[in-house]
User: Fold this.
Amino acid sequence: MQETVAKFREKFSNQVIKSQEKSTRRQYIEFLPPDIPEAARFLFKDLNCRFATASGIDTPEGIEILYHFSDDHTGEVISLRTILTDKKDPQIHSIATIFPAAEWIEREIWELLGVKFIGHPNLKHLLLIDDWPEGKHPLRKKE
Amino acid sequence: MNLTSKALTKSIGVFHAACSPCNNCDIEILDALTPKHDLERFGITLVGSARHADVLLVTGVPNYKTAERLKKLYLQTAKPCLVVAVGGCACGRIMFRDSYNSPCAVDEIVPVDLYIPGCPPKPEALIAGVVKLLAKLRGK
Assistant:
């Protein structure tokens, strides 16, 4: 196992639900939604990882959000996975308060999948028109 | 042929209106302007503002945001202004027909004079299209 991942796992050994090692330099680590901001802060501030992007998808279990972090010195990519099981009103704390780079992708996930990011400084439409009907999320699967 | 359309065939200022394309058509358009294919030998140059344009070159499928802007761009151009739709998307929306963010095709917003299909069209296809457009303008 690579160094950055080892440090990260040591710090968050209690919060990790499960993890998957795709390859030696590609890790998926799953957390409960409330633990995400702390894990993201540690990766960004203490391990000096770069926030690459986030991705959201509507799965049968809930809305899955992946936060991809890259350590450009070692080439490791760590993806934090979390699943928001309440599809009626999915909520998670925003990480845009830790680094502004997450602001736009959270706006995109909010408008396309309807995830509410608590504490986001500027949650308004990014790709869709401003008067897009409220409650209509184009990337949600049909029930 | 009146004077304005005769002048139009001599040197054409093209404004490149990218209406949410995937950028493949845009790369081919720039390729057509490079010395290898050299669209400039027909007197064609890209201009920086729609107000200087004789031809509006549209790529991509308009979405709700760009549809509005394309309409405004067309209104800003000096008439007569020709509209060229480049690529399958601009010609007929292809696979984005049922997309949540696709209100209408390009020719429902502005009157299109020339369609150049392809995904993306080759520079040769662009040149062939331009030659046909000039022939049409000259009434041949």
